[in-house]
Amino acid sequence: MNSAIDAEYCRTSELKAFDDTKAGVKGLVDAGITKIPRIFHQPLNALLDSSHAPNDSDTKFVFPIIDLQNIKNSADSRKEIVEKVHNASVNWGFFQVVNHGIPTNVLEEMKDGVRRFYEQDTNLKKEYYTRDLTKKVVYNSNFDLYTAPAANWRDTMAIQMAPHLPQPEEIPEVCRDILMEYSDEIMKLGKLMLELLSKALGLKPNHLEEMDCDKGLFVLCHYYPPCPEPELTFGTSKHADSDFLTLLLQDHIGGLQILHQNHWIDVPPTPGALVVNIGDLLQLVSNDKFKSIDHRVLANRGEEARVSVACFFATGFLSVPRLYGPIEELISEHNPPKYRQTSTKEFFEHTNARGLDGNSSLLYLKF
Questions:
Q1: Separate counts of helices (H) and strands (E) for the chain
Q2: How distant, in Å, are the alpha carbons of 6, 132, 155, 314 from that of 17?
Q3: Closest CA to 119 of 219, 32, 233, 24
């Protein structure tokens, strides 16, 4: 890049010009661009970080899938599932669940609802475009647009569905009904997963629920348009989730990768499955027994937009007085607490201010 061009480049101005369109990344694609704007160019070291598992047939790199079908059949079946949840949470921080109880038609309609929102007329979407995180529905491109090292090739609509349900008219009409139905289903599955995770930690089944880990639900509807230069950017940069637990619905396109044993592992799009991952706050309260793992989404190389729905269990930016630190039953003289206490609001504000910079949000809480 020659110095004359560098002298003319003003990143702040380009970020603001992009943000002011209120059309997101999809707006750039709709305009027919063939080169991505410089604000999306990722640092070279991040782009070169592409080590894959050396041998796909090696069982230690096979992404875990847990079948919940027999969870109510017997104590032995439930014990076996708890053991699998434990192993995946300790060794991977991620797993997929199948036969989880959410009907296939609900999953498909949820993905269709996301597509309907993003593929409607831009002027209809613009009324929801905001960076005011106090709003119930927040649609924008890159929550950390002005703080991250580079922008991601992704648009997002975020809705706080619990503890206070939005008024129906606050939710975009094109996805209103399915979003409310899907959130109800996700809340039920989230309670079950927290029960299994409690048992996997050696605690009573309702321990995490009694800590209000299921009190908040934040639904993020992501849209990843095709990218004309996918080798220069990401759909989502490397990060770990800042919540207790995430339940992710992804479509058939793929692109999600997790960092496992210093290798990037593809998370295979499995029909009917949901991806489950441990968040930073669950790593904190488990005193590092369960791990919140870095993951990323590659820029979309296909001709069709990728959609996903990430459901975050946490109260986020809401002012909730409860403080979270390592669970008393999990600490001892030989396993002292590794973190100080924090509120979810403090933790989310800290994470949001940093953006997706590739570093752990838990570091500032460590003793």
A1: 11, 12
A2: 18, 18, 16, 33
A3: 24
Considering only 32-41, 44-53, 249-258, which range has the smallest mean pLDDT? Answer: 44-53
Single-letter residue type at 339: Y
pLDDT for 4 equals 43
Lowest mean pLDDT, pick from 149-163, 234-248, 343-357: 343-357
Name residue 65's beta-bridge partners.
Answer: 96
> Tell me: the pLDDT tens digits for 340-365?
999 999 999 999 888 888 889 999 99
Q: Which residues contact 62 (CB under 8 A, 6 or more apart)?
A: none
CA distance 72 to 208: 20
> What tokens were used for 334?
């030989």
As given in the structure block, the two tokens for residue 247 are 């339940």
Whether 185 has a pLDDT exceeding 70, the answer reads yes
| Strand pairing class (65-67; 94-98) | parallel
Could you please report the per-residue DSSP string of 102-171?
Answer: --HHHHHHHHHHHHHHHTS-HHHHHTTB---TTSSEEEES-TTTTTSSS--S-EEEEEEEESSPPPGGGS
Output the pLDDT for position 355: 84
Instruction: Provide the pLDDT for residue 42.
Output: 96
Tokens of 53: 């598992």
Tell me the Ramachandran region of residue 261: left when phi exceeds 0, alpha when psi lies from -120 to 50, beta otherwise: left
Q: Residue 344: which of 243, 272, 265, 196 has the closest Cα? A: 243
Distance CA 127, CA 142 (A): 17
Rounded to two decimals, the pTM is 0.94
Q: Which among 146, 141, 169, 144 is positioned nearest to 157, based on CA atoms?
A: 141
- β-bridge partners, 67: 98
Q: How far apart are CA 75 and CA 307, in angstroms?
A: 37
Structure tokens at 276: 């489950």
Q: If you search the block for the tokens 């109800």, which residue do you land on?
A: 184
Side chain identity, residue 208: L
Nearest CA to 161 among 278, 23, 309, 277? 309
pLDDT digits (tens, 9 = 90+) for 41-56: 999 999 988 777 665 5
